[in-house]
Amino acid sequence: MQTLPLRLVPGDDLRASLEAIARSRALSAAFVLQGIGSLSAARLRYAGIDDPAQLTGDFEILTLAGSLSVDGAHLHMSISDRDGRVFGGHVAAGCIVRTTAEILVALLEEHTFSRENDAQTGFPELVVRPR
């Protein structure tokens, strides 16, 4: 396993940036191990709800984790607001970096990830194959 440390800058869309990095580096299988930083806006999809919640204000990224490949990302994140309230869920496009996002990605060179429709869940789910 190799690691790839990243820093996203103010104005970057967290999800879109990670997906663009995966495509540009042709990452066949990777995991976001952790991320910290801050956001000026967040869009999180909560469990059992189809549409993401739009949150605005200053937020700290407490945790960021998920899978990443050229097929896209499946990311979960917890954030806190200025009052210490914590929100968490599935990361949607529109999570905008405020000052920085420092992210550690693990590259799994012996595997390939794809997203394929799962009849049981009705969603495109992770399929792991040896490379």
Automatic annotation (TrEMBL):
Keywords: DNA-binding. It holds the Pfam family PCC. Residues 1-129 form the PPC domain. The keyword DNA-binding applies. GO terms for molecular function: DNA binding. The keyword DNA-binding applies. This is DNA-binding protein. It comes from Caballeronia humi.
